[in-house]
Every structure is written in C-alpha cells, then in structure tokens.
Amino acid sequence: MHKIGIDLGGTKIEGILLDEKYNTIQRKRIETHQENGYDSIVKSITSLVSELHGKIAEDVSIGICTPGVINANSGLIKNSNTQCLIGMPLKNDIEQALSHEIVMQNDANCFALAESSLGSAKAYDVVFGVIMGTGVGGGVVINGTLHKGRTNIAGEWGHHTLHPNGNECYCGKQGCVETYISGPALEKRWREITGKKESLQSIVQDFSDEKAKQWKEEFLENFGIGLANVIDILDPDVIVLGGGVSNIPFLYDEGKKAVYDNVFSDSIETPILKNSLGDSAGVFGACLLNI
Ligand SMILES: [Zn+2]
C-alpha cells in the first residue's frame, strides 16, 4: 500500500507520499501558523493529506507525527510544546475530517522508528532515539517495533528530574532535563552566564573564554547524567541523536564521555550516533507507523 506521512512541527507541516518500496512520489512543506489556532492546524493537515492522496487512485495508509504525547486512553494531546494542541483530540478530529483512519505518534517515536529502519541505527536491535530540539524527547524501538509503553510515555527522558528544585518546566514540574539541554534552554543559559543573546550555532564556535567553558561544562554534565539514567534502565544497543542540538560535534566525543562517566558500569560501550535522515525522520517515521 502507498503511504502518506505528515510531520507536524512548530513552524512547518511536511507531507510525503511514498510507494510500497518507500520511493518518494510527492513531498510538500507548508507553514504551521500556530498563531491561527488549533482549527487552522487541523485544516492545514487535512488539505495536505487530500492533496497528496489526489496524486494516486488507490487507498493509502496515513501516519501523523506530532509534537507532544498522545494520551493512550483519551487520545488527547498532552505535554506538547505546540501549546494550542494541548487537550485537543487531534487524531479524532483529523479522522473525522478525512473519513479515514490514521495512526498518530509523537515526533520522538517517529524519529526513533525512522532512524532504526532507514537511518543510522539500522544495524541495531534495541534503539533509543533522542530528539534534542525545541524540546527533549525520546523513543524506544525494539527489533523494528516501536515500544510505546502501557501509557504511551516510554522514552520520555526529557521530563526526568535532573535538579529537584531547578528550572520550571511547562509540564508542571521543576528541573526537567528539557529545561537544561533543549535548544532554547541552552541559549537562555548562555544569556544568563554571558549576558549575550546568541544562537546555539554561534555559541558553539568558540570555547576559549571562561564563561563559555562554564556553559559547556554544565551542558555536558546535564547531558551526561540525563542519558546515563536512560542507559541504566534500558541499556540500548545504540543511542541516536536528532533535533537541532544534535548538530553540535562535541556531543559525540566529550558528550559521550560525560554519559559514560555517569553510567553504572565500568565497561560501557554504547554507541552514540548522529542521525542520518535529518529533517526527514519525521515524515518517514510517520509512514512507518503503519507497519
Ligand atoms: Zn517537564
């Protein structure tokens, strides 16, 4: 069967139509316009799906990759950093509008599925896929199958507590991993330490100065403890990193060392790899949800 995958992001919605062999027939990207609210997002998604489906005559499977967590019982979106989706029955509303069944999963699960089937983690059985971007998430794939967990929260290491009285998180807790090592959190911390407003990309160009060293040290420690906790529980065969923060080269040497230093083992060797699908993991993962 042909597959349609939709990746709903904070700034763009991307859609792809694949044939049975995962060849791309059509791909299209539109803007999300969060400011126009929930109904407009639903409308954008359904018209993108209809447009892609219009390219072929036969039926398709439809998978959607969304930010946030989908409550296993109610189907409502919770804990999304695209705030207008919180508490909304997105899956149900899209199915109603399309009169077609869909499968929906969060972006970290789609990322893990895509990288384990088509990307960097292809050679491994137990894969922990990490997204470090606007938020921090994770997904677990075991032998090609997504491990969603009983309550659909497996892999959500971004909301493990790193510092009990630490930074406030939108999820209602304090000190979550996400509030330290997401892109916005890292840029905010840089402003606090140096007084300078800079993008992550420019921050990581130069660590000669003492303040920059302090920022990097804190980042490595938070990254190290956060992922070491994951390894202690899951002990995956590989960890693959995605999202904007995953483009920082030092995560794959110094970052890896910081993780190893905190794992409860003296013979740790878990590979920590960069993704190979880049921005495309979301749409491909969405297509793979139906398998
Ligand atoms: Zn949190």
Strand content: 15-25%
Strand order of the largest sheet: 3-2-1-4-7
Mean pLDDT: 94
Shape: globular
Alpha-beta classification: alpha/beta
The percent range for helix content is 25-40%
Number of E strands? 12
Gyration radius over CA: 19 Å
The number of helical elements comes to 9
Q: What profile does the largest beta sheet have?
A: 5 strands, mixed
Give the topology string: H per helix, E per strand: EEEHEEEHEHEEEHHHHEHEH
Ligands present = zinc ion
User: How widely separated are the two ends?
Assistant: 11 Å
Low-confidence stretches: none
In words, what does this structure look like?
- The protein is α/β, with parallel strands linked by helices and 291 residues long.
- Helix content is 34%, strand content 21%.
- The chain has helices spanning 38-53, 90-98, 107-118, 178-181, 183-194, 200-203, 210-234, 254-262, 281-288, and strands at 2-8, 12-18, 24-31, 60-66, 69-70, 77-78, 103-106, 126-132, 136-142, 145-147, 238-242, 272-274.
- The strands form three sheets. Strands 3-2-1-4-7 form a five-stranded mixed beta sheet, with helices on both faces. Strands 10-9-8-11-12 form a five-stranded mixed beta sheet, with helices on one face. Strands 5-6 form a two-stranded antiparallel sheet.
- Strand 2 and strand 3 (24-31) form a beta hairpin.
- The chain is globular, with a radius of gyration of 19 Å.
- The termini are close together.
- The model has no long low-confidence stretch (mean pLDDT 94).
- Residues 159, 169, 171, 173, 176, 178 line the site of zinc ion.
